[in-house]
Known about the structure:
single chain, Immunoglobulin-like, 2 domains, 2 helices, 35% strand
Amino acid sequence: MKKNRFVLASLTLFAAATLGMVSCSEEEASAPSPDFSSEISDKTVSFTNLSKDATSYSWDFGDGTALSTEENPVHTYAAYGDYDVRLTATGDGGSEIKKITISVVKEWPAITIDGTFTDWADVPLFYSGFGEASGNLMEAKVTSNAATSKLYIYIKGDLSAANHVLQVLIDADGKANTGWQTANLATNGAEYQFEYYIQDSWAGTYSWNSGTDVQDWPWIDDITNDAELGDIQESSGVIGNSEIEFVIETSLMKNPVIGTQVGIYFWAQNTDWNQVGQLPPVDADPLQAVKMFSFQ
């Protein structure tokens, strides 16, 4: 009888040990838990892998590019937008997927129209070295706000009474073969003309409304129709006859609507339209072509 009891006890211990081994094996084969965080800098995103119980990884960045097997990849997107990023984590317990939607958006510097200009330091030059053909303007910077409804503009150069009329051409659709055509500009196609009397703090915005062959008065005069403010609601005014910052409200430009990429050109002069003729005057052939600005 004692012998049988001993055998039974041994079997019980063996069963318990076997169950313990199975339990340990199940813990080691737990399903992976994929997880990650991201840090966005303009179009470049750094991913930090926070997964558990995984030995290999596969990243789908949601933009149609090749998958990555790096643990902590860095990916640069070709365009701004929302992307569904999927991380597949694989381990002894199988594979699991985690999806997170990230927003890759343009980071616009915060500009305050106050005449100090220090907040423009991180905005890259849009134009530089204009020269005599552009009224001795030295440089220009352009930025926007998150809603893309305003253009913030900084101009530096000779802004004395000799160059008191600042002209801004805007190619709303980014196409040189539509809008105003003139031999004075190497590349053009402007749908809007912004004329700013910087010494008097008055401006008008004009919309092109004709064919490219029309050379009389093919513009709609003062589309914002604000005689009191003269279309300038935010401006520092000229500081030291050399610097100015102001805002153009692009939401008023509706025919055509401003696109995500527009062409912009600047120059300064001492005459306005009425003194020169029917078309926006250009004192000399500009040295540079119209440059493109992207809201995104």
